Amino acid sequence: MKLIFDYNSQSLAIDLTPGGSGKSYYATIGSKAVDVEVLQVTDGKLDLLIDGERVTAYISSDNAKRWVTTKGQTVVLTKSSGARSRGKGTGHDHTSELAAPMPGLVRSVNVEQGEAVSKGQTLLVLEAMKMEIRIHAPREGKVQKLLVKPGQTVEREQVLIEIE
After folding, report:
1. How far apart are CA 19 and CA 62, in angstroms?
2. DSSP per position, 53-105
3. Which domain does 55 fall in, by range?
4. Most CB atoms within 10 A, among 14, 34, 108, 153?
5. How do residues 69-107 score in pLDDT, each as one tens digit?
6. Can you give the pLDDT at residue 86?
7. How far apart are CA 83 and CA 3, in angstroms?
8. 124 and 115 Cβ atoms separated by less than 8 Å
9. How far apart are CA 164 and CA 114, in angstroms?
10. CATH code of residue 52
């Protein structure tokens, strides 16, 4: 999952990759990678272990944005537009995973596996809550994997298409 956070008037990207257990992650910011383990979650509070250091984060949200306060500093996090990037350690495999922004029904798939796509091209259309949601290519590339078909029901954050 890719998150964007605003800090000191800069937007920085964080790539989160699930680790071995359901509560551990690898977080990559630029060229720096850290291990993150979720120790406890309570209403508006996260206890984390970040590279062996215990950190408490307080979170508030307005659906699109999350404010995270830790050690007296607050950053604003926003999830990027349905595109998820996968990283392994500090490297990157140049694959973008496009995920469902909400549960829905795949209405149409406009590309085939192996097809070249251009940035902004509509790859598929989801229907959710009586709305059509168009999933666009985040960049030029080639459809590496097509993981859904028309008529299929998908869950929030389920990977739909991989672009290389």
Report:
1. 28
2. EEEEEEEEE-SSEEEEEETTEEEEEEE-SSEEEEEETTEEEEEEEEE-SSSEE
3. 2-79
4. 14
5. 888 777 777 665 444 433 333 334 446 788 887 788 999
6. 39
7. 10
8. no
9. 10
10. 3.30.700.30
